[in-house]
Amino acid sequence: MTAAPLRAWKPRAGRARALVEAEQDKTAGGPHRRTVFTKGDNAVRASVVLNASAGQGTIRAYLRWRQNGRSVTRSLGPVRHTTRLENLVQAWDLARAQGLVHDEKPPPESWASSPQVRASMKGNRGRDTRPERRVRALLHACGLRYRVSVRPLPELRRTADIVFPKAKVAIFMDGCYWHGCPDHHRPAKTNSQFWREKIAENKKRDADTDRKLMNQGWTVLRFWEHEEPTYAAERIITTLGAYGNQR
Q1: Secondary structure of 25-91 in HEC code, one letter for each residue
Q2: What is the pLDDT of residues 61-81, one digit of tens each?
Q3: What is the pLDDT of residues 117-147, one digit of tens each?
Q4: What tens digit of pLDDT does each residue of 83-107 get?
Q5: 113 pLDDT exceeds 50?
Q6: What is the CA 201 to chain-centroid distance, rounded?
Q7: What is the DSSP letter of 102?
Q8: How many C-alpha atoms does 175 have within 13 Å on its Cβ side?
Q9: Cα–Cα dist 210/16, whole Å
Q10: Which is it for strands 59-67 and 47-52: parallel, antiparallel or unpaired?
Q11: Residue 202 to residue 216: CA distance in whole angstroms
Q12: For residues 194 and 150, what is the distance between their CA atoms, to the nearest angstrom?
């Protein structure tokens, strides 16, 4: 039997721990969905491990967590997809179906209205998001240099994700939830009035930022986090070309 392809189970070598955790969070449906309750109702976070059986072409999934300083592993069964991410998603589904993992409730002091909202809030990074890093890598590969997470106008308390000071070009990579993406934003079902006002306030602030920068001669480019990084990079490069590729 043909051996299982590496892309279907093996993690990328040398990945930072933060990226490994982000992969687990994404495939589980959020960090709040990775909870195992041990004896005494202690909540610990689990991870999925994929292993390929030698010579059998089979990939098996295991759930692993730490309990009292020791590693605990439970077999989840075989997974049968062609990519690692798809197999991780299937493994988490198996773990839930077997009652091994549960959704963690927000702590009493949390003001998030649900575990899903809390997970979204915790996962919303102010800088160095994955879309930002991918766009920056493409720009850097083209020989462009830029500033990251700075105020285009020092006197204005608004931070752009990527800035070309000489060309006066400011780029913002907007998260679909927090900035009200027309394609992917889904209104909160609980505490809906609060979140509706919060998103509306964010959109108003974005428009005000664009207006104030443009009044000072800046070109503002905004991209949604779901947009292809290559598309964003091409638009940025084209815009810079109009200014003689100033950096």
Answers
A1: HHHHCCHHHCEEECHHHCEEECEEEEEECCCCCCEEEEEEEEECCEEEEEEEEEECCCCHHHHHHHH
A2: 999 999 888 999 999 999 989
A3: 555 544 444 556 788 889 999 999 999 999 9
A4: 998 999 999 999 988 989 988 765 5
A5: no
A6: 23
A7: B
A8: 15
A9: 35
A10: antiparallel
A11: 21
A12: 29
Strand ranges for the chain from DSSP E = 35-37, 43-45, 47-52, 59-67, 70-79, 147-150, 160-164, 169-174, 219-224
147-150 β-sheet, strand order:
147-150, 160-164, 169-174, 219-224
CA distance 233 to 110: 38
| CATH of region 124-241, choose from 3.40.50.2000, 3.40.50.620, 1.20.1260.100, 3.40.960.10 | 3.40.960.10
User: Strands 160-164, 147-150: parallel, antiparallel or unpaired by DSSP?
Assistant: antiparallel
What 8-state DSSP symbol labels residue 6? Answer: G
Domain residue spans of the chain: 6-110, 124-241
